[in-house]
Structures are given as structure tokens and as C-alpha cells.
Specification:
Its main location: membrane. By secondary structure, the protein is mainly α. It is 83% helix and 0% strand. It has one domain. The longest helix is centred in the middle third of the chain and has 32 residues.
Amino acid sequence: MLGWALTFLVIALIAAVLGFGGIAGTAIEIAKIIFVVAIILFVVSAVVGLLRGRSGRVP
């Protein structure tokens, strides 16, 4: 998911350099949203992993 955020960031940077302000603005907003969602999912996953602990035994 962070790969998608970086992709949109690169698209935004290229569009800004070429003078496409509307496309650059839209791409950077999408990148921000995807980045925030990725961070939230990471935190939720980390908390769930800590709460569950290691339930299985390794022989």
C-alpha cells in the first residue's frame, strides 16, 4: 500500500514539474489518503498482534 502512495507521489511531482497543477493536486491528495490508511492498518495490525501474542508452540 505504501508503494501505491509513493507511485501517486511521483506522479504528482512529475505533473507539477510539467505544469499540470490540477493533476498534481489530485495525485498528492490520493497519496496522502493512501498513506494515512496504510499507517492506520499497520497500527491496528501491530496492536492485534500484541494482544493475541504467540498462541502456538513451536516443536
